[in-house]
Design a protein that fits this description.
alpha+beta, 20 helices, extended, five-stranded mixed β-sheet, three-stranded antiparallel β-sheet
Length: 490
């Protein structure tokens, strides 16, 4: 019988260096569940498996590692081991033989919990019944416990990025049903973690699954639709946080927030701008704050609009002014106002994916020719937006595009000294792109996009398409450049 060894290898072996261990026959009673077995749900053998093992034993070899107490921890095949234990328990009374179980005894894994859990994950991941939660938890725990060498190899084998530990931990915040739908929809680990980040936005899951579907339909491996939808969802999440903060501030100041009345319910409240004191003087926040009816509503930008909850009860008068019926033009102006707010928010959100794409372009080994020519033209012709930006001596955006650590404190003089000749054109494009980004920074730029601004966005659109659809314009950017496209220009 194989014996346990407690020696830990001094140098962790890589997968290529491992030698397939000898298969030995173990008494199933000595096999226990290894603490690094990746499967934590559905760990019991079903009746079909037990019946099969009663008749023919366990055909497929399990994998175990020795434990100090003389037992063996099964990190692959624990359900098969349990089935053989159950079969052996009734073997004598049923007239069947008591069978041992074939096992790979992995002495090299003693003390290597991270790699053991990883091997268990690989074994169980593709077997029916392992939950998405078990997969995520095992990815997180196994990668944490690995050496750097093992972690690099494991992330490649799992097809995940270097931030997999953080992403797996974040993704586990989703409930089981959402995890199943995310997996069924084709979300990878990073995308599942991003879904967890914005899941509280109404419709987030549906919108992201649709964006992912559109990326898959294009079939080029890009994720441009996903990135733009994520940017919008994050903007909506930030917007909700601003509103929540505004509501908290009102609550802390003991100012009631007036609720919207339902259809047919009378609303006695009025904005202070529509009221006066009993003597006809204007009412303001300052001279009304001691009124028992002092309250507020939040406007579309989450700023308080001061109201009196019941002007008649508290002695206020309504400002004399002719009551105009609400017209179709009023409705149109209100709709336009809502559109402006939505487009401003979307324009701000689009800056994230756009600047991430610029950073990827700048950090490529070879800058695309179209980007190089665009940068050279701007430097040679020095348009106003570029010359005015250079006068500001702003360096943070350039440093961020170049990948400089702590870009807010970057010394570009030092960066210039260290910059290889082959990267000069990349730095040139980073400089020009930073000026372009500054030129379109205002949230309402979408409403009056000029020709140079449109050229910059159309350039990025072209480069994103050439890069397998890794970047695409957002809806508001596409709307803004529409009149500047060559086929629609006058």
């Amino acid at each position: 019988m194989a014996t346990a060894v407690s020696t830990q290898p001094t140098e962790p072996a890589t997968h290529e260096q491992e030698v397939t261990p000898e298969i030995v026959l173990l008494d199933p009673a000595l096999v226990v569940r290894d603490e690094c077995n990746a499967r934590e749900e559905d760990t019991e053998p079903d009746e079909d498996l037990i019946n099969s093992v009663r008749e023919i034993g366990v055909e497929e070899t399990i994998s175990v590692r020795p434990r100090p107490d003389g037992t063996y921890g099964a990190f692959k095949g624990w359900r098969r081991a349990q089935a053989q234990q159950a079969a052996n328990a009734t073997a004598e009374q049923d007239g069947r033989p008591v069978r041992r179980i074939k096992a790979h005894v992995r002495e090299d894994l003693v003390g290597r919990d991270g790699w053991t859990r990883f091997l268990s994950l690989v074994e169980n991941k593709h077997r029916e019944g392992m939950s998405e939660r078990d997969i995520l938890k095992s990815q997180e725990l196994s990668l944490i416990a690995m050496s750097d060498i093992e972690r690099r190899q494991a992330t490649k084998a799992l097809g995940v990025g270097r931030n997999a530990v953080k992403q797996a931990k974040a993704a586990q915040k989703l409930d089981d049903a959402t995890l199943r739908r995310a997996a069924a929809g084709g979300m990878d680990l990073e995308q599942t973690a991003q879904l967890a980040e914005v899941e509280n936005v109404p419709g987030a899951e549906r919108r992201l699954l649709r964006a992912l579907e559109r990326d898959h339909e294009e079939g080029n491996g890009g994720r441009g639709h996903w990135d733009q939808e994520m940017a919008l969802l994050k903007a909506e999440l930030d917007d909700a946080a601003v509103r929540a903060k505004a509501e908290e501030d009102l609550k802390a100041a003991d100012i009631p927030l007036l609720e919207r009345r339902g259809w047919g319910q009378k609303d006695p409240s009025k904005a202070l701008s529509e009221l006066t004191t009993g003597l006809g003087n204007p009412l303001t926040e300052d001279n009304h704050k001691n009124c028992p009816g002092h309250s507020a509503r939040l406007d579309d930008e989450h700023q308080p609009v001061w109201h009196c909850a019941d002007p008649a009860a508290y002695g206020h008068k309504v400002r004399p002014q002719p009551k105009k019926p609400r017209t179709q033009e009023d409705e149109h102006r209100a709709e336009e106002r809502r559109k402006v707010i939505a487009c401003n928010r979307a324009w701000k959100a689009a800056a994230g994916p756009r600047q991430d794409f610029v950073a990827r372009l700048v950090r490529q080994k070879t800058l695309p020719d179209a980007a190089r020519v665009f940068a050279q033209e701007i430097v040679l012709t020095v348009p106003y937006f570029y010359s005015s930006w250079t006068g500001r001596h702003e360096t943070e955006t350039v440093a961020r595009f170049l990948g400089v650590k702590e870009p807010e404190n970057a010394d570009l003089t030092e960066t210039a000294v260290q910059l290889p000749k082959a990267r000069v054109v990349n730095a040139l494009f980073a400089h020009v792109a930073a000026a372009c980004e500054y030129d379109i920074r205002e949230p309402n730029t979408w409403s009056h996009l000029n020709v140079p601004q449109a050229r910059y966005l159309l350039l990025l659109e072209e480069l994103g398409q050439d890069d397998n659809g890794s970047y695409r314009l957002s809806e508001v950017e596409d709307q803004a450049v529409a009149r500047h496209r060559p086929d629609t220009a006058a």
